[in-house]
Design goal:
single chain; eight-stranded antiparallel sheet; DUF5719; mainly beta; 629 residues; five-stranded antiparallel sheet; transmembrane helix
Length: 629
């Protein structure tokens, strides 16, 4: 019996030594079974059952045995403490478990070899998470591949013509009637070919998707996808196509198909002119691509003034639109404007005085998800029986700390003071309008660049904006001429300039709003309106730049390029004589320092309008896509 007892002790010691060696323990160190019993585990997180150590050991073994490759992001054992596994133990069926889920002691001995219960539970959780759940999203420093999207149609979306508001004054979709008996309205569009002379298929579509005008027939998909860098003789055969002016009064959108995987260059303009009725005057609207975010700055809702926000959805998806208004005192609460649904092909009109009455200057930020929208404000003023001006407030450049507004026509100071006599015509004065875009407000400084260089602004050219507020800076006292205004603020702002034109205070007066512009790039297309005479203002506020200008005739031919050198913070002006009588559009590109362009359009004794430049089209667009199970 003694020999048997000694033999059993020696076998037990050899087993303990083997266990220490397998577990990486020092000789003489107690094994987990010889150590003191584990203290009570810490409480589990609320809603998560506490792990059973025996069940966790089984899961570790099962996972290790069944997985032939290492799971991504799986936890590895600490160096110097390898984890031992037993494939036979892992294969033990659940029926072998004893009462309350406990396993036989032989299984517990293996658990002891694996190490302490705390390490075991952590290892089981980490390995199981890496095996069962999909890999975590890519962390910092891991680049996600860019997926290239095929280029789609280029769009140029024009608002409907000026209409006389006759509704009740609040809500959405008021009633309208024709503006006047002699009103002229038109939409003109133009498109450029590729270097091989191919004209992309281009159509003017109504909001219901029907074709109002075909400018060029669409090419087959195979032909359109082919890339051609030049004509058959190896030279550029660039040309264009111009649509005849259309008298269609409702909203229209020009669609131009892409060529060679690159979006085509298409642009359009809406013009309106009337000499009688309440909406007498000239109104010009550029036709930008529908956008997910639009800033409109400078509306008026004082007595006699009407501002109607028009939304058009030319896309195939429903647009969920939010409209944030900022007035003289800050944010205007308008809960009904925070969730408007605009269906595909639908348009909505909103009388802003119903939500923000008696505002001398008002701005609107229009954002949409789903479908993108075209947003413009139809602004009109009536002083008793005398027309006080009409125009479209179009999109300005995105809110930034630095803004540039080219193409602002300033009248002779004496005439300007006469038109803005106190009383009925008090607001008939040129001014800059700014909207602070955050609760911080903004301090704004302005520089005026005229034909001869920088001109001091009466009053110092500085204004402080309250939190999320819209305010104006008068421009009275500046010498007559075409200007560019450079705006610098300590917080992002949206900006526009109001122009006034007339002959006498008791005669019809017209107004126009020029918005902040984006920097000129490699190529832009500006379609000239069929009404009025356009003058293009070019400027490079900070340094020297060269702007190349080519005319596109109504016959589709492009003229030779003319280079305009800009320097010394001067504004250069190109008139009809510079780009020819038959010009229907201009093609502009710039090199050097940042340069900007816009047009001032005049007609008759008092008509005035403003025309900005649309952004250049993009090529293939990309999106980062992360795939998950």
């Amino acid at each position: 019996m003694k020999n048997d007892s000694r033999r059993a002790r020696r076998e037990a010691e050899r087993a303990a030594a083997a266990a220490r060696e397998t577990a990486g323990l020092a000789p003489g160190a107690p094994t987990p079974l010889e150590a003191e019993p584990a203290k009570e585990a810490a409480p589990a997180v609320v809603g998560t059952p506490a792990p059973d150590p025996e069940y966790a050991a089984e899961q570790v073994a099962a996972t290790t045995a069944d997985t032939s490759t290492e799971a991504p992001n799986a936890a590895k054992p600490a160096e110097g403490n390898p984890v031992a596994t037993d494939s036979k133990d892992a294969a033990t069926p659940a029926s072998a478990l004893g009462a309350r889920g406990q396993r036989p002691k032989s299984r517990t001995r293996i658990a002891g070899v694996l190490g302490s219960i705390g390490v075991l539970c952590l290892g089981a959780g980490a390995i199981t998470a890496g095996s069962v759940f999909p890999p975590a999203a890519t962390g910092p420093g891991v680049e996600v591949a860019m997926t290239s999207l095929p280029a789609g149609d280029s769009l140029a979306s024009c608002p409907s013509t000026m209409k006389l508001f006759t509704g009740a004054g609040t809500g959405v979709d008021p009633e309208f009637e024709p503006a006047s008996k002699d009103a002229k309205t038109s939409v003109r569009a133009a498109v450029l070919s590729d270097s091989a002379g191919r004209i992309p298929g281009t159509e003017m579509l109504k909001t219901d998707g029907s074709v109002e005008k075909t400018i060029a027939p669409r090419l087959s998909a195979k032909d359109a996808e082919e890339r051609r860098g030049a004509g058959e003789d190896g030279t550029s055969e660039r040309k264009g196509a111009v649509s005849p002016a259309s008298g269609y009064a409702e909203a229209l959108t020009a669609h131009a198909q892409p060529l060679g995987g690159v979006k085509s260059q298409v642009a359009a303009v809406r013009s309106y002119m009337a000499t009688d009725g309440d909406l007498a005057g000239l109104a010009i609207a550029g036709c930008p691509a529908p956008a997910a975010e639009t800033w409109l700055t400078g509306a008026m809702t004082t007595p006699g003034s009407t501002a109607v926000l028009n939304l058009v959805n030319p896309s195939a998806s429903v647009a969920q639109v939010r409209i944030d208004l900022r007035g003289g005192e800050g944010t205007v609460e308008a809960a009904n404007l925070l969730g408007l649904a605009v269906a595909p092909g639908e348009s909505k009109s909103i009388v802003l005085a119903g939500y923000a009455p008696d505002e001398k200057v008002l701005s609107a930020k229009v954002t949409s998800s789903g479908g993108r929208v075209n947003a413009t404000i139809q602004q009109s003023t009536l002083r008793g029986l005398v027309p006080g001006g009409v125009d479209y407030l179009g999109a300005t450049a995105s809110a930034e700390k630095t803004q540039v507004i080219p193409g602002v026509a300033i009248l002779d100071p004496k005439l300007a003071a006469d038109l803005a006599k106190p009383g009925a015509n008090a607001d008939a004065a040129a001014e800059l309008v700014f909207a602070a875009t955050s609760s911080e407000g903004a301090t704004v400084q302005v520089r005026a660049l005229g034909p001869g260089g920088e001109v001091p602004i009466p009053g110092g050219g500085e204004i402080v904006l309250a939190s999320n507020a819209t305010a104006s800076m008068p421009l009275g006292g500046l010498p007559a001429g075409n200007y560019t205004f450079v705006i610098e603020a300590d917080s992002a702002v949206s900006a526009s300039a109001k122009m006034v034109r007339g002959t006498k205070a008791d005669k019809p007066i017209d107004q126009a709003w020029a918005g902040a512009a984006s920097r000129l790039g490699s190529e832009h297309l500006m379609v000239l309106p069929s009404e009025g005479n356009a003058s293009v203002v070019l400027t490079a506020p900070e340094d020297s730049a060269t702007v190349s200008v080519r005319s596109l005739g109504s016959d589709g031919k492009l003229s030779a390029a003319r280079d305009v050198e800009l320097s010394g913070s001067k504004s250069a002006v190109l008139s009809k004589a510079d780009f020819g009588d038959g010009a229907a559009a201009l093609v502009l590109s710039a090199t050097g320092a940042p340069a900007y362009a816009a047009a001032v359009v005049t007609d008759g004794a008092y008509g005035i309008g403003a025309l900005g430049l649309s952004d250049a089209p993009l090529g293939r667009e990309g999106v980062r896509v992360v795939l998950r199970d």
